[in-house]
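Backbone shape codes
____________________
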Amino acid sequence: MLKSMTAYGRASINTKVGHFIIEIQSVNRKFLEVNVFLPRELGQFDIELKKWLMPHLARGQITVKVNVTFEGAVPFIVRPNLPLARQLKAAWDEIINDLDLHAEKEFRLTLLEEADGLLSYEENRAEEENYRVALKEALEIALKGFMQMKYQEGAVLQLDIASRLETIRKSLAVVEEKKPTATVKYRDKLIARLNEIAPGFIENEDRVLREIAIFAEKIDISEELTRFYCHLSHFEELINGESLSVGKTLEFILQELNREINTMGSKSSDLEIARAVIDIKSELERIREQIQNIE
């Protein structure tokens, strides 16, 4: 069962701690990369959220965006740094007195906006579990739609690849059919050429036979065909099997298929075999493009 790497899932739910919206989106990547964007108030759940996701993913660039409208309590406690505030106020008063800025004597809270460390944020342990439960609930809903799209797209890819594999097998049947005739054609061509040079006379028939035997060995593609069929069967087993993450393995097998068919093409001098090889290589290239999107 194949899974596509490109997918999208969304959840929008109301909980007792607020309204949660989660979006999950993935695009093609050779390896797995997960990026999570959480509101600052929920930053402590970053690692947990990734752990919830990991069992469902093998590769691809995954982006998770979380937006929350809080209702009632928030998952942290804000505490003022009062000693720092007093020092800032005292410093402001000193500046006023020193520069005789009587018109600016009123202390303005805007002067504290740029002060680092004036407010501290502590986790609200009493409410933390409520936010964890709400976040996980929203994520599971978004993940359900996300995975459903992965399987739907994967099913489309599977049908397309299966069709191309069938086309490849038909072209391989042509290669097998024409393979035995290549040596015969070469023998006839060689004898015809010798007859042109010396009509009705072949000086050394044994030498001709040796030449034909050497040529037959050079153009023999039996081993390549056997390996190609073996790799092809493995490829078909994977796309029709129960494994959910086979993209990388399919890529490796496809490399081997290309290697074998290239060797067959370089060995063959038969026109029909050459055409069949080109057709196979064309289908393998289209399959390669498709499996770039398989997880």
About this structure: DSSP finds eight helices and six strands in the chain. The mean pLDDT is 83. The CA atoms of residues 68 and 264 lie 60 Å apart.
